[in-house]
Every structure is written in C-alpha cells, then in structure tokens.
Amino acid sequence: MRAPAAAQSEATTAARLVKVLGGAGAVAGLAIVTAFLATKPRIEANRARAVQAAIEEVLRQPDRYETLYVVNDRLAAQPPAGADASRLEQVYLGYRGATAIGFAVTAAEAGFQDLIHLIFGYDPATGTIIGMRVLDNRETPGLGDKIVRDSGFVAEFDSVVLPLRGVKAGQGQDSPGEVHMITGATISSRAVIRIINNRIQRLRPLLDAYRAARPEAR
Amino acid sequence: MKQSTAQEDLVRGIWRENPVLVQVLGLCPTLAVTNTLANSLVMGAATTFVLISSSLMVSSIRRWVPNAVRISTFILIIATFVTIADLVLQAVVPVIHKALGAFVPLIVVNCIILARQEAFASKNTVGRSLLDAVGNSAGFVMALLIMGTIRELLGSGTLLGMSVFGRHFEPWVIFVLPPGGFLTLGVMLLGANWLQERRKSAAGAA
Predict the structure, then answer these.
(1) Least CA distance to A41: which residue of chain B?
(2) Does residue A8 have a pLDDT over 70?
(3) Could you give the percent of chain A with pLDDT greater than 90?
C-alpha cells in the first residue's frame, strides 16, 4: 500500500511544481507584456526625437528634411513595397526653403573600445562637412569620450573640406581639410575622422546620382 | 535564533549589515555605474524598486512556493521587475538609461536582491519583508551616493553636472575610470571597518 501512495504524492509534487512555475511564468509574462506595451509609444517617440534633434543639429536647423532609403546601391525616396523601412539604411536630405542644403548621414565603425555611432551633415555641392555629432560611444570616460564633450573638437567639423585629415594639436598648416585631434584621445579622434571619410567614400556615388536625377536636390 | 524586532529589520541594512560596506555584496553596479552622481541615483532608484517589489511579492506567495523551485521562482519575480524598471527608465530618462547600459538588466543578478529573498522575504511576513527591503535599499543607495559624489567631484569637478571647483580645477580622470572605483570603494570599506572596530572596542571597554 505504501508504494502507490508514495508514487501518488510524488506525482502530486511534480504537478504542483509545474503548476507553480507555470503560473509564475504566465503572470510574469503578462506583467512584462503590459509594461512593454505601456512604455512602447514613449520609447519610440524618444528615439525619433533624438534622431530628429541630431539631424537638425548637423544640418544647422533646416526648415524640413526628407528620409531617403538605400536600396540596391541607389537612393530612393520611398522604401520598396513590403520592406521594413526601419531596417533599411537611411540618409536624410535637408531643405532650407525649396533649396536642398545637404545630406545628414549616420555611420558606425570601431573606435578605441567599441563602435562609435555618429551623424554628420554633408554638403555635396562644396564637398564640405556641415557639422558632426557623436550619437553613441563606449570610449574611455574622461579621455576618449571627449569626442562628445570637447566642444572645440566638435566645432572642428564645421565647414571642413573632405577628405578630412587629422593633425596633432599645435601642428598642421591650416589647410581646409584639417581636423585638430584631442590630446590624450588620438585614437578616438582619428576614428571619427576615418568613419566620416569612409562613409563619404562609399556614399558619394549614390548621393551624386540622386542629385543628378533630382534637380531640386541640386 | 533570536527573533528580531520590526525596528531592527528596518535599520539593520542601513549600517550594521550594510549590503555594500559590511556584507560586500552587489559590487558590480557599485563599481561600474558610480562615475557620476546622477547615474548612482538612478541605479539606486531602480534597485530599490526591484528589491522592494520582489520582497513584497516573495513574502506574499511564500506559502505556495515549494522549496524545490523557490530559487527559480525568485529569479523569475526579480527578472520581471527588472524588465519593467528597464522599460520605464528607457521611456522616462533615456539619456541616463543609455549611460547605465547593460547594468540595468544586470540588476537581475545583483546578489543583494536574491540574498534578501532567500534569507528574509521567503521566511517572514509581508510587513517585515517590506521593512527589511527598505532598510537594505537605503543602505545600498547610501553607498552608491557616497561613491558617486566622491568620484564625480574628484573625477570631473562637478556634482550632478554642475561645476563645483570652477574652471581652473584639473579633474583627476582616474576617479571616473575603473581604478578610481576600486580606490574609492577601498577607502570607504576601510572607513566603515574602522568605525565598526572603534564602536566595538568602545562597547568592550564600557
């Protein structure tokens, strides 16, 4: 008589364990989904606001901007039917009045520790950078992260002619493509310069082709 | 074991059994995100929310949770509150959320939280567990705030981003770097131990 009773209690225990864990999992799942849905609109709005603020900064407050998508190595004003626009590579074209003033381009490449994500404004008519802002980085606090906090370094990218060339502080000949690097953050500074040069090298044919096809984009 | 009073449950975590200064638990966030006072404040608030909510939940369901699955249930409860805290921070303070990086999700494995569930909330009433969680959170936040204040003040010359020492102060960059975290914590542990020793010897002499 003992054995069946023990087996039964073991089965009950197993069933109870599954019930407790299953129940806890279901409640936890419900709570997480509720929190996710409740915070989603605000998180997305925060992200959109951050991107918009960055575009406006690097294009020096355009009146409006349009989003272009890189599709099959060409720029398109509309994402292809059925494609998820947020997954496509995007470029932004800013206007002042009816005149196009330049493209805002995002880029990411390795810095000293991890990827440096940045955005910069590019005027294809003159081949100059309008402005640059680092969006995200994991550079050394206090040293490499000066690429964000050092306003002098950030200002180096205002109206600088491509291709960019990094020079050490106190050196250089004031040529138009010179960017003075930060002492103590040479690798991070050089990375920012490299990222912009590489990105423009890759995108320039696309941007030029788009401008040639669209007269309003100059 | 001697039964503790409600007041003891509350104050124990603040000083005598401070999770950071005495038990030396939860050092990952203590060292990693205290390079500014704002980061310390937000990390402290998020951990407090998770610790108090988890203790309330664990103590209220303690009768129904079989011993064999208690740890997995506790972790599930803690992870749920951490996910909620992570989403809320992302929605409300996106800049600080970004600065804290992976350390918000890592609150799940902060051993202070699991330790309080295992050692206290799973064996005590909801009220007592709440007091215990509040006391331990206060102790943890206190340690983070001291770390954050010292490191931001010396490492950046600012407090909450506002300049304290003026333009001519040359920041001791090492204090916002990992070695500065270890140095600051070491000095704090030294101070806490010295105070405890002094109190013990005073009590012995009396």
Answers:
(1) B91
(2) no
(3) 47
Across the interface, whether the CB atoms of A35 and B69 are under 8 A apart is answered no
Residues written for chain A: 218
pTM: 0.80
Of residues B73, B88, B173, nearest to A142 (C-beta): B173
Shortest CA distance from A42: residue in chain B: B91
Closest CA to A135 of A185, A192, A91, A95: A192
DSSP letters for chain A: -HHHHHHHHHHHHHHHHHHHHHHHHHHHHHHHHHHHHHHHHHHHHHHHHHHHHHHHHHTTS-SEEEEEEEETTEEESSPPTT--GGGS-EEEEEEETTEEEEEEEEEEEE-SSSEEEEEEEEETTTTEEEEEEEEE--PPTTTTTHHHH-HHHHHTTTTEESSPEEE-TT-S---TTEEEPPTT-HHHHHHHHHHHHHHHHHHHHHHHHHHHH-GGG-
Q: Is the CB of B32 inside 8 Å of chain A's CB atoms?
A: no
Can you tell me the ipTM of this complex? 0.83
Smallest Cβ–Cβ distance between A142 and the set B73, B98, B171 belongs to: B171
Give me A3's structure tokens.
């054995």
- DSSP code, position B163: E
Interface check B179 vs A, CB under 8 A: no
- Chain B: closest CA distance from residue A138 (Å): 9
Q: Both tokens of residue A71?
A: 């599709």
pLDDT of residue A1: 47
- Cβ pair B88:A24 closer than 8 A: no
Contact B88 A32 (CB under 8 A): no
pLDDT in tens, chain B (206 residues): 557 788 888 888 898 889 999 999 989 899 988 989 999 999 999 999 999 999 999 999 999 999 889 999 999 999 999 999 999 999 999 988 988 878 898 899 999 999 999 999 999 999 999 999 999 999 999 999 999 999 999 999 999 989 998 888 888 989 999 999 999 999 999 999 999 899 889 988 76
